[in-house]
Amino acid sequence: MSNSDSRVAVITGASSGIGAATARALAADGYRVALLARRVDRIKALADELGDGSIAIPADVTDRESMVAAAERVKAELGRVDVLVNNAGVMLLGPFETGQRDDYRAMVEVNLLGSITATEVFLDQLKDGGGDLVNISSVAGRTARAGNAVYAATKWGTNGWSESLRQELLPDVRVTVIEPGVVDTELPQHITHEATREAVQQGYDVATVKPEEVAEIIAFVLARPRHLVINEILLRPATQLG
Ligand code: NDP
Asked: Cα of 182 to ligand 1 centre, how many Å?
């Protein structure tokens, strides 16, 4: 049961997939959760479902003003931040040579700069009393492949940025990078390059892990005693090769 003393988790991209599943898992562990995303109907419905101090905050991680407003709302309505999950992301894959400049920019602005902005605006609250920063990277943050150049760049960037922050913020803030393989979410549906979308979707049809399984891992990481931190977790469907 949540109350005004219970811990608070802020989750970006909480309107679907891994973010929504993480919100449910952390709420089940007694957290009050602040659900950030652009699709307001979805986060409001999820906040209603979770009840007990969970709030929906319309926010775009590419818009610093909306993130500053989100941080102010969390402070005013929930009073503390114990966990920030930088989960919002887009995976607009395609051959680099097709020149999808809007897609490249969106991936950098959401996946990399969006996480940086969210961390920057929530950091004071996160450091106050000891917090956890969870950055959702990807297998693509460890393995670059033809066709995922800019997506991989954002996730490799996430990993490098996270390691630097880990050193800078310890022991006040524990930093964890989660690197999932193929997870059953709507992520590939937004790919604009049609042939790539179909090929990637076929891979998703073969084998995935469930977003709830990633969420369980995040909840496990956060439940470790404060003297211990799990800095990095790489997970895949057991049949996924690369
Ligand atoms: P989803 O598409 O289900 O979720 C993506 C989330 O990001 C949505 O809630 C979306 O909310 C949010 N989002 C996108 N753009 C913005 C923005 N500008 N501002 C705020 N929120 C935004 O996919 P997943 O759950 O799979 O993705 C979550 C994370 O997991 C991503 O970082 C992704 O790269 C990573 N990941 C996913 C894998 C997979 O196979 N599914 C594998 C490895 C990593 P809204 O549109 O409402 O704003």
From this structure: 13
Cβ atoms of 173 and 126 within 8 Å: the answer is yes
**Using CA atoms, how far apart are residues 99 and 193, in angstroms rounded to an integer?**
11
> How far is 128 from 3, CA to CA, in rounded Å?
19
Cα(120) to centroid(ligand 1), Å: 19
* Residue listed under structure tokens 């419905």: 45
- Confidence grade of residue 2 (pLDDT, cut at 50, 70, 90): low
What whole-number distance in Å separates Cα of residue 98 and Cα of residue 133? 35
Q: What is the pTM of this model?
A: 0.98
Pocket of ligand 1 from Cβ distances under 6 Å? 12-13, 15-19, 37-39, 60-62, 87-91, 110-111, 136, 138, 180, 182-183, 185-187, 211
Report the separation in Å between the CA atom of 70 and the middle of ligand 1, taken as the mean of its atom positions.
18
Catalytic residues: 151
* pLDDT digits 0-9 by tens, 21-77: 999 999 999 999 999 999 999 999 999 999 988 999 999 999 999 999 999 999 999
What are the chain's domains? 8-235 (3.40.50.720)
Quick: pLDDT tens for 200-220: 999 999 989 999 999 999 999
Q: Which amino acid is at 19?
A: G
Helices 211-222 and 17-28: crossing angle, nearest 10°? 50
